[in-house]
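Closing statement on the pyridoxal-5'-phosphate sub-project.
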Amino acid sequence: MDIKITKTTNPKPLPDESKLGFGSIFTDHMFIMDHDDDGWHDPRIVPYGPIVLDPAASVFHYGGEIFEGLKAYRGTDGVVRLFRPDENGMRMKNSADRMGMPYVDPDDFVEAVKALVKVDERWVPHKKGNTLYVRPFLIATDPNLTLHGIHQEQFLIILSPSGSYFSEGLIAVKGAFETEDVRAVRGGTGFTKCGGNYGAANRAIMRSEAAGYPALIWLDGVERKYIEEVGGMNVMFKIDGKVYTPMLNGSILPGITRKSMIQVMKDWGVEVIEKRISVEELLGAAKEGRVEEVWGVGTAAVISPISSLTHEGVEYVFNNGEVGEFSKKLYDTLTGLQWGEIEDPYGWVVKL
Ligand SMILES: *Cc1c(COP(=O)(O)O)cnc(C)c1O
């Protein structure tokens, strides 16, 4: 790609690294590329700011939107690293395919991410745990209310310096099962990272948080019997020394953290079982005290330990409600790789 770079004449001051939060501060620049019947053209990095779209643009009416999420990490050696960006590029291609949207070549995706992070490299935080969150997204822009396919698109990347989820160490949160709303169904878009999945999830997530259960467990959309995910993360259970995680079935998002952790655990000699896990099976094991640890996994938090799950008014507590040693070890290993503190035997870490 021949990326045209127009730098801002008015760079912003860097934020206070101790007060970053998540996703509310944006850097000086953004990446944009346009698609029409001639294919992709005009890849460019421009000053960050509002974009102008026709009110008839398809994204506003028919939900043509997919996104990705990854991070840039500054190691103690000062080197900035990305974690498996090629996986994000491939997943975005798969998402686009399901949504009937022209896709961005995964190599161009990685090139664009790298180019933008390089331009805004001073924004990659220095404190371990803090990261530069990278949000690529693809929107359908055809200014047309007919349903004749998606031809015009914009691919954008924005960057947001973000604080660690766990600046005070890992914290376990309470969870509960969602028995009314479902996030996705097989044949639908559950395996894609599309905004629509989040639109469908908002109500349940808001209700669950208000009820004191930040970790909402999604069940399958057909029988409401099998566990799928927790909030916007994949979920794992340590039972009798083995690790169980719901198998990918079309309605579950294929997380890159999930995939990476499965590999790491297998290399530790841990038995990892990907299968359908019913609520009944999990709670049966919990009643017998066999569920050792429960945690969510995803790029944003890496690991989110779950202290208990409540079902029909009964609270099942895991590991005395404390963060488990195994979850902690997984967290330390993954973040160690991402910050370049642990030798990467996998070739996952990409230096800028
Ligand atoms: C992004 C996402 C995940 C986690 O995927 P990672 O690639 O590990 O960040 C899990 N579930 C949902 C619904 C997601 O959107």
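The longest strand covers residues 131-140. With this model delivered, the sub-project is considered complete and its resources will be redirected to Aim 3.
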